[in-house]
Amino acid sequence: MFFLCRKLSLSRFRHHFPLRLRRFLGENPNPTTHFSTLPDNQTKRPEKSRLDGVEHKTLKVNGINMHVAEKPGSGSGEDPIILFLHGFPELWYTWRHQMVALSSLGYRTIAPDLRGYGDTEAPEKVEDYTYLNVVGDVVALIDAVTGGDKAVFVVGHDWGAMIAWQLCQYRPEKVKALVNMSVLFSPRNPVRVPVPTLRHVFGDDYYICRFQKAGEIETEFKKLGTENVLKEFLTYKTPGPLNLPKDKYFKRSENAASALPLWLTQEDLDYYVTKYENKGFTGPINYYRNIDRNWELTAPWTGAKIRVPVKFIIGDQDLTYNFPGAKEYINGGGFKRDVPLLDETVVLKGLGHFLHEENPDVINQHIHNFFHKFL
C-alpha cells in the first residue's frame, strides 16, 4: 500500500467548506468524476478464475530475470496487449481475475512479478529499487513482448500504479492508455522531502516511516509470521492512516472478525504465503526505502504532466481515498490539471484498497470499456 500526497501542507486543508457545500447541493465540481454504487451482489464471493492456459516464463530484462505470467487472447499474434503492474504486498497473481476475463475478450494479458517480488530476481542493494530501475524493467519487458515497436495498454494498482505514472512520464510512447487504481498521480513537490514530511504529519509509527530502517520491519514480520502479516495487509479496510507501532500493530479487537473476506480464499492466501516465505519482504519493502531517493532522482520531471489517456478508479473505503487532500485534489481540478487526458475518475462505494479483487467483474468492465475506445 502506498500513497504520497502532493503537497502535504497542513494549511491547505482548512478551506474545504465551499467544496463540501457544493457536494451537499448536489453539484459535482469535477465533471470527470462520478460515484458508483455497486449492485446488491457485491458481497458475493467472486467466481474462481480458471487459470488454465496461463503461461509462465522467465525473461531477461534490464539485467534481471523477471517472472512473467501470460494468458493469450485469440492467439492471432495481433491481439492488443494489456500489461498489469501489481502493488504491495501482491504478485502477478493479484490480476488472475482480470487476465482470465480480458483474455476471453481478445486481449493478450501479461502480468509480471515486479523486481524483488515472487519469482523475479531480487537485487541485494537497496538503491536498486528506484523508480528508474523498475521503470527500466517495465520498458524492457514491453520491448520484449512487442518486438520493441508497439505501445501497450497498462493497468496499475498501488505501487504498480506509481510505476505506471512514472512510465507515462518517462516513456509515454510506450503506453496506449492507462487504467490506474488506488494511487493518485503525485506531482513532485520541489521543497518537501517525502519521508521527513510524512513523519512530521503522521508520526514515527506511520507504516512508511516504519519501513525505512533496513532489516527492522522484516525481523518483526518474521516473528509475527508470514501468513499473519499478509492476511492483515490484504484484509485491511480502515479508511485512515496505517500505523504500525512496534509490538502493538495488527492487534484485532475482541469483536473483530478473523475470517477471510469473501474475495480472498485460503487457497489465494496460501499462494501469496508460499512466495513470500521463499523470497521474503525485503525486496518489496525496498521500494519504500527509495522514496526519498526517487524524489532526488526525479528533479528533472518537476512540473511534468501525464500525457496519455487515463481512467482512474478508487474505492471510497480505501485509505488512499481518505488521505488528507486526496478528495480535494480529485474534485478541485488538480488531478485533471496534472493529467490533462484524464477521461474519468470512478469512485466505487463500498470497496477498499484491493478493489480489483473485491469486485473483479466491475473492474474488468471498466478496463475493457475504456481500452476499447482505442482499438
TrEMBL record:
Residues 30-50 are annotated as: Disordered. Keywords: Hydrolase. Its EC number is 3.3.2.10. The keyword Methyltransferase does not apply. Residues 80-360 form the AB hydrolase-1 domain. The keyword Signal does not apply. Pathway: Secondary metabolite biosynthesis; terpenoid biosynthesis. Pfam families: Abhydrolase_1. Residues 30-41 have a biased composition (Polar residues). GO terms for molecular function: epoxide hydrolase activity. It catalyses: (24S)-24,25-epoxycucurbitadienol + H2O = (24R)-24,25-dihydroxycucurbitadienol; an epoxide + H2O = an ethanediol. InterPro entries: AB_hydrolase_1 (IPR000073). Epoxide hydrolase involved in the biosynthesis of cucurbitacin and mogroside tetracyclic triterpene natural products (e.g. siamenoside I and mogrosides IV, V and VI). Cucurbitacins have cytotoxic properties and exhibit deterrent taste as a defense barrier against herbivores. Mogrosides are nonsugar highly oxygenated compounds used as high-intensity zero-calorie sweeteners; they also possess pharmacological properties such as regulating immunity, lowering blood sugar and lipid levels, protecting the liver, and acting as antioxidants and antitumor agents. Belongs to the AB hydrolase superfamily. Epoxide hydrolase family. PANTHER family: EPOXIDE HYDROLASE. This is soluble epoxide hydrolase. It comes from Arabidopsis suecica.
